[in-house]
Design brief:
Length: 538
């Protein structure tokens, strides 16, 4: 069982235009493509984990150390909030609203009425220019400067001496309550400034985020009593929903985020550590600074080199992104791209290609599955069973009997393998799980064929997989099968499979038949008395 998952979001690190990029004005965008050939890009650790093995990304060499996938965003958006929500299992049908022409008059009028302050500006503006251009009038009249950007934000600037910060925050809360439903902007942001013209912004900026409209994996984990630890802007992106306040660690920049994450490896927690590294997006992607982006990735890769060896036996690392922000295109805005997913850990199959996944939400489903928490209403399809190395640890009790825990894991593995059975002709699905004495599990399913006779049973698939990997020292096998459907009852191994088992396994070899929660154990000699074995040829 997995104890801790470190999920790192490299903000805006896309790996190529999504199929629907044109609808977002982002045809041909490719953030990784724009930085990977830069002289300052040097990321051997990301390469080792499988970054260049990902579907559609070229250049992967040898076997990757991690499992890898290309992730497609199912939500209709390309912003940070929607991307993170989807990673956490919440797919959004509508993008967060943006206001290139300013906010509607009736909304501003209501905001003025409720706050008691007149409003200036109300259009997209640069944060430093807006206080220079509107600051003097705001200071004279006590008005609030409301402005927006290409992002889904409602920003309110005011001079701290004219509108005290607490009053500004109160106005932000009023805006937050107004801006719901179709006007549910991602963030309302307080932007206090001080001093004489042209003024300076103060550190008392505060974000009031939209609360996710449904539960995410964070709610599921917290409800299950697991830890949810956050680094960077994760807490704000989820408006704290599903995250204990004590686990909110805001950061100054990437270096700070990496330092805090490195510190958390030493902490004994059980659950998820969810990290956002924002510089890729805010400092480089939006500024079309490909060199800076390449340097930031190189710095992350160096850090990764020291972080990976510190992961424990029961830890998993996942690296992904929330959208793209190609620094080489004229646009300084986000881009609708695929994102990468790299999964690494002692219990993860190296070099496992997960292909292209249809939603970021598969990450959420997998996190919950790996930590043993039910998905509830969250979206996504878990790929946990595909990527985990099935290793149950010690197999025997001191007196040489199979451990009960191991028996149960073996029968469950056979039931899981049964789901992969290829049975268009018989619709009789069988799964087998073969255990080696060192604790490794090889699974198999039955694979049928249009010409019928080449069909191979589940047991033989498992045995042949193991033998072809050089493993022949077996401890037990479990078989779960029956007609299609979940109510698999019992499948007696066929004569050919019994014969193949007798080739490698002794008379007392345990064969577990049944299903999870209801199985029986039989020595192989009960299934095949007087077996003809290699000994007979001596
Ligand atoms: N089958 C197995 O996979 N294992 C057995 O030991 C018995 C039979 C499969 C083969 C075929 O695909 C289907 O069950 C019906 O015979």
């Amino acid at each position: 069982m997995i104890k801790r998952i470190f999920l790192i979001v490299l903000d805006s690190f896309g790996v190529g235009a999504a199929p629907d990029a044109a609808a977002f004005g982002d045809e041909g965008s490719d953030t990784l493509g724009a930085v990977r050939n830069h002289p300052e890009f040097d990321c051997p650790n990301l390469a080792r984990l499988g970054l260049f093995h990902i579907d559609g990304v070229c250049g992967g060499q040898g076997q990757a150390a991690g499992a890898y996938a290309r992730m497609r965003e199912a939500s209709k958006g390309k912003d940070t909030t929607i991307g993170h929500w989807e990673i956490a299992g919440l797919v959004s049908d509508d993008p967060l609203p943006t206001y290139p022409d300013g906010f509607p008059d009736d909304l501003i009028a209501e905001f003025e009425r409720l706050t008691g302050h007149p409003v200036l500006c109300n259009k997209p503006y640069s944060g430093t220019e807006v206080i220079r251009d509107y600051g003097p009038e705001a200071c004279r009249t006590g008005a609030l400067i409301v402005y927006t950007s290409a992002d889904s934000v409602f920003q309110i600037a005011a001079h701290e001496d004219v509108v005290p910060v607490d009053e500004l925050y109160r106005c932000c809360e009023i805006a937050r309550k107004l801006l719901v439903g179709k006007h549910g902007v991602g963030r309302v942001i307080a932007r206090p400034f001080e001093g004489e013209w042209p003024y300076v912004r103060t550190a008392r900026r505060h974000d009031f985020s939209l609360v996710p409209p449904a539960d995410t994996m964070l709610d599921r984990l917290s409800a299950a009593g697991l830890d949810v630890v956050t680094v960077g802007k994760i807490y704000d992106i989820f408006a704290g929903k599903g995250i204990p306040v004590s686990e909110c660690r805001r950061t100054e920049n990437n270096d700070h985020g990496m330092e805090l994450t490195a510190g958390l490896v030493d902490r004994d927690f059980r659950g998820l550590c969810f990290i956002n590294l924002v510089d890729f997006d805010s400092a480089y992607g939006h500024r079309n600074d490909a060199a800076g982006y390449a340097r930031a990735l190189t710095a992350f890769d160096r850090w990764l080199g020291s972080f990976l060896p510190r992961l424990g036996e029961d830890d998993v690392l996942m690296i992904t992104a929330d959208h793209g922000c190609d620094p080489s295109t004229p646009s300084t805005d986000h881009s609708r791209e695929y994102t990468p997913l790299l999964v690494f850990g002692k219990q993860i199959k190296p070099g496992y290609d997960l292909g292209t996944r249809s939603s970021f939400a598969d990450i959420s489903a997998t996190v919950l599955d790996a930590l043993g928490v039910a998905q509830g209403t969250t979206a996504g399809k878990s790929f946990w069973r595909d990527i985990r190395v099935q290793d149950v640890g010690p197999v025997y009790t001191l007196s040489g009997k199979l451990l009960k825990r191991v028996e149960k894991a073996l029968v469950q593995a056979a039931a899981d393998a049964r789901e992969k059975a290829y049975t268009p002709y018989s619709h009789f699905k069988v799964g087998a799980a073969l255990l080696t004495k060192s604790g490794k599990i090889y699974t198999g399913c039955n694979i049928e064929n249009a010409s019928y006779t080449p069909t191979v049973c589940a047991e033989r698939t498992a045995v042949f997989k193991a033998v072809s990997e050089g493993d022949t020292d077996f401890a037990a096998i479990a078989v779960v099968g029956g007609p299609e459907g979940p109510a698999a009852d019992f499948c007696a191994p066929c004569g050919v499979c019994r014969q193949v088992l007798a080739e490698f396994c002794p008379a007392h070899f345990p064969v577990l038949l049944g299903k999870p929660g209801a199985y029986s154990v039989h020595p192989l000699s009960d299934l095949l008395p007087f077996a003809f074995t290699p000994k007979d040829l001596l």
